[in-house]
Amino acid sequence: MKIQHTPSSFYSIPDRFITPLRSANNKKLRILIQFNEQSRYKRPQIEKDWLKATGVSFNPIWDARNNSIMAAYRYVEEVDYWEITPYYHDKTRKYYNADFNDHLAVTRLGLGETATIDIDWSGAVPTFSIEVYDFNKGVQVVPKRTFECKEVEPTRQNRLISSYAGGDEKIPTPFSYTREIIL
Description:
By secondary structure, the chain is mainly beta.
């Protein structure tokens, strides 16, 4: 599915609504993300936050900043690649790459490469895994890495989080990327 961001909104087109996951028994979410020529955007000067591709919230109401796990990304214009990181919230604060004390928590993704992200809350501790492939060359670019999201408390009520900009200010240029969700 092509996801489009416009300068006039924090939210993306087409998925702007709350989407319950199909089954409360389904405790895994796979996300495939690929950036293309239209995915480049100008990052606002004051932008410190990450854009959110999607994820799962264990809060049945609209707020995705409470008890949730997401895939977050940003474009780094100076070197022409994208960064993806686990991004999650407990009930009081957010956690992202800097909180893992591991520079590998940020995964670089080049033009045409595909990130496979698995969010799994079937075990005692929810996890976020990521690996990157270049299917055109038939090679794995980044081996699978898994991060624990210990502070998140999964509940039976869960929902898919829409893609949104979620930063300090709206993105000044339109852009799009390809995202596939596999439940």
